[in-house]
Amino acid sequence: MTSTPRFAGRRALNQPPGARRRSSDGARRASFFALLLALALVAAACGDGDDGDEAAAGGATTTEVLRIGAIPDQEPERLQRTYGLLSDYLGDELDVTVEYVPVTDYQGAVSAFRVGDLDAVWFGGLTGVQARLEVEGAEAIAQRDIDERFTSVFIASIDAGIDPIDDVAGLEALIGRSFTFGSESSTSGRLMPQSFLADAGVDPQADFEGNPGFSGSHDATIELVQAGTYEVGALNSQVWDDRVTEGVVDTDRVVEVFRTPTYFDYHWVARPELDQRFGDGFTDRLTGALTALDADDAGQAEILDLFGAGSFIVTESGNYAAIEAAGRDAGLIR
Fold this sequence. Notes:
Layout (H helix, E strand, L loop, with lengths): L7 H6 L3 H40 L8 E6 L5 H19 L2 E4 L5 H10 L4 E4 L1 H10 L4 E6 L7 E6 L21 E3 L5 H13 L4 H4 L5 E2 L3 H9 L5 E5 H10 L7 E6 L7 E4 L3 H5 L3 H10 L6 H10 L4 E3 L6 H9 L5
Parallel strand pairs: 1-2, 1-3, 6-7, 6-8
Antiparallel strand pairs: 3-10, 4-10, 4-11, 5-8, 5-9
Helix pairs in contact: 3-12, 4-5, 5-13
């Protein structure tokens, strides 16, 4: 019978040093991969929980940004200050990141809203109607206290020698004069002045000296008439009043000759999917934040002052039916 060597078991345990290292390295690698697998499973579980929370919150995520915009009806520096302050206020009130995105012209604001690059926009009456008609479910949500009885003014160069006009019919006195509107899509600087001119029997394409101009903004209209480039211009009454108060207007060179009847004008319009992106009730919260601006608070008073308003109030899309009708009559809404 063959006997087992006395030290055979010890030789099996006492392997060469290289073999022991290979065995140890393999064990460490196995442990490392097991740890990675465990971490991946934990991360996946946490991710599933976050998705559920987001779904419960209406799809809101921490990376969502509320992008606001406005028609460029005033000087860019003033717009940047106004909407920069408003963005900070809304961000604090709504607990979201708010970004002001400037646009170059009125139709650019409508286009950006239509494609979703802007979530809420401060429109004039006409552009607000145009935007809502292009985005199903979009709604007017808020306006300034002054926007339910808004007016335009007709201004004239002193050298034109135009007497004050008492009523809409008196606008016929502008026949034969050189004339500029503001933006082609401006409610207060083009649509409503053109509508009142039509009521007076004045056709801008036939009755002015040359074709009417389009300055692009209310401030530019003041500058052009003040410089004598045009004898007469039409613009937003709030901008005119503010610039006169600020001393920007040289009243020895340009004066107001007529103030129109009232109409609804500027308003905020919100896209329909905001509640889905930011949580149920977000559109109402946005409206609430705007209407909560308080003239007794110094910081908020500055925002209201830049808007030329005492407060913001709730509005609804139906308030702009007359603007839509005027826009269709003028061929500006199809």
